[in-house]
Specification:
alpha/beta, Rossmann fold, 7-stranded mixed sheet, 17 strands, 40% helix, elongated, Sterol_Desaturase_Related, membrane, Fatty_acid_hydroxylase
Length: 479
Amino acid sequence: MIRYCSTGYCSTSALPSSREVKNLPMWRADGAILTLLLHAGPVEFLYYWFHRALHHHFLYSRYHSHHHSSIATEPITSVSHPFAEHIVYYALFAIPMVTAGVTGVASVGCVAGYIFYLDLMNNMGHCNFEFIPKWVFSVFPPLKYIMYTPSFHSLHHTRLRTNYSLFMPFYDYIYGTVDVSTDDLHTAALKREEDEPQVVHLTHLTTPESIYHTRLGFAAFASRPYATKWFMWLMWPVTVWSVMWNRIYGRTVVTERNRFEDLTLQTWIIPKYKFQSPNLKIRLVDGSSLAVAIVLHKIPEGTSQVLLSGQASKVALHVSVSLCEKGIKVVTTNDNAYNQLKRSVAMSNNARARQNLILSKTYDLQTWLVGDELSEAEHRKAPKGAHLIPVSQIPPKKLRPDCIYHSTPAMIAPPSLQNVDSCENWLPRGVLSASRVAGIVHALENTQEHEFGSRILNPDAIWQAAIKHGFQPLNLKNP
């Protein structure tokens, strides 16, 4: 029995009883035909005019402009709407399913298929990548009126006043709102040659499970590179297969494409678990100079001494020498780190720098430079309110809620950097690590020198260049 519920003037949706839901057939052809007709008719028609209304300046400025903040769209853009719009869309998309239920022709396959169709077409239209071949429309010309393409909808996001249709463009053709360049753009998008990048950010796998932390794996893991979940053990067949595939196939994969000013940027994943620098005619940049500058700018004003903890890396050594030259005492409790620092300071022409390097067993300092392999015992000796500033790309675990943890060396990307659509490691969205920023800045400045191995350039110069090109300091702290 169909039960109706009405309040006041509004009769709400008619829903099947729980018994009827359990007894739904897997498939009914008449239900599928009804769903198709209702979608092509009322749903597409009402959506078209509702969408046009949303582009009136009153509604656009208050609601729909949020969706159009994405000019270079991506699949997630398809569901980026204000709450009020979502309610209208749910009501529209419910028309075929509710009608099928009321008339008794609903089926599991019909409901599931319609929901799958909505998600598939919605994501496809916003993927910003044209892949529908032109021959499809040549073989069956009417298809252009009942199926849109990614390039069709991309024109709506760039021109705003054209191509309003949901998934079936025939209402745009009927009412004269189809963009005149739709066919030309579709052809041009399919013929577009691959951009040759000027800057490539090289990454590589570290463990068999690290494949799940890339964009090819689980997007939610992007900001937690070394985290593990219990269900990853259940995926060991896939993990083993990926290891075998990497060994056999072994080709570099492009996982991200960006544009900044006149540069084409790409991120590559090298399918190797160890990586050696290739012998190529390119300039190699590891970002150490910029990392040094970023760490130096994180030192709280008025600091007179800092503690270097963990292992002394290339960045840690250069930061320590710079601080010693500025008259700030650098204290370390590690004999090996002290000997490395002593050799580095000895190469400095600043006589005062040698006096500011101290080997001590004291931990009662408010500013810590945290290197790799910081032990938990040493970590817990930090005094209350201490600033823990990483000098490596791996942040320390936050064991002390009463301490202030700074971010790893990174900078905020300028708004003009396109397609930064995921988090990098543990950094917030729109923030890039020092190594990525340095590669971009070196290309913009046309720097001819390598920065690799023990070599380091002028930290202050690369910092000023980064600021000049719109990158901003990241003052992210977690008290």
